[in-house]
Amino acid sequence: MAHSFNVSDRVAAGDYNEIWHRCWSESRTAWDRGEVSPALRQLIDEKGWELPSGVGIVPGCGRGYDAMFLARPGLRMVGADLSSLAVDAATAIRDERGIPADQVEFATLDFFDFAVPEGGYQVAYDYTFFCALHPSMRAAWGARYAEIMAPGAHLIALMFPLAKDDADRERGPPFLVCEDDYRRALGDCFELIHIDPSCKAHDTRVGQEVITVWRRK
Questions:
Q1: Quick one: average pLDDT of 152-163?
Q2: Is the pTM of this model over 0.85?
Q3: How much is the average pLDDT of 69-87?
Q4: Which of 6, 50, 52, 68 has the fewest CB atoms within 10 Å, counting from its CB?
Q5: Which residues share a beta bridge with 67?
Q6: Which domain of life does the protein's organism represent (predicted)?
Q7: Cis peptide before 117, with omega less than 30 degrees from 0?
């Protein structure tokens, strides 16, 4: 399949700050579709998924569309990104839309190393973040979510891009994924409580996305 992120570098664990900041500085953000992911909108608006109250986080938030969509009375969202350019872009869009800063905050953060608010997060949304990480980092990804999320919290993971059996799973980003990759990474700390293989998708990603919700035990 085509790898639309257009990042030629072979990404290793220590290279992410430089890689993603360079993508933003050179406007190489082909993963950005300019809107809320259709599967997330369908889950919340059409299927009426009830989100816990508290504080939520969207790692790798980019321009912040999903974080702004999820924010609502009782749920304050944090959009986090390694690139300050992404955070600046998201903040500008938020301000243009008149969304209060105390409802959605955007911050330049390293997902694996930042201070977690007392009580942890109640909601997280993970879309083009898991697939941006080298497969060697997936266990750390799952351990970090287990660390930052409160018992009963919901991790909404839109799995993308789905792997074919004969696909090259070591080429990326984005790196190909499957349900078992998430199960292994999340281990015994989360249980799968919702999966929709027929969820809506961006036009160019039909058949490559499956939305899931995992509950922190």
A1: 95
A2: yes
A3: 94
A4: 50
A5: none
A6: Eukaryota
A7: no
Confidence bin at 204 (pLDDT 50/70/90): confident
Q: What is the DSSP string of 152-198?
A: EEEEEEEE-SBPPTTS-TTS-SSPPB-HHHHHHHHGGGEEEEEEETT
Q: Which domains does the chain have, with CATH numbers?
A: 35-216 (3.40.50.150)
Residue 34: exposure state from Cβ atoms within 10 A (0-12, 13-18, ≥19)? exposed
155 in Cβ contact with 126 (< 8 Å): yes
Residues 94-125 as b/e (b if ≥16 CB within 10 A, e otherwise) read: beeeebeeeebbbebbebeeeeeeeebbbbbb
Cα gap 181→48, rounded to integer Å: 27
Task: Provide the edge-to-edge strand list for the sheet that holds 190-196.
Answer: 104-108, 75-81, 54-59, 121-126, 149-159, 210-216, 190-196
Token digits for 193? 């409580």
Residue ranges in the chain assigned as alpha helix (H): 16-25, 38-41, 65-70, 84-96, 138-148, 179-186
Q: What are 55's strand-pairing partners?
A: 76
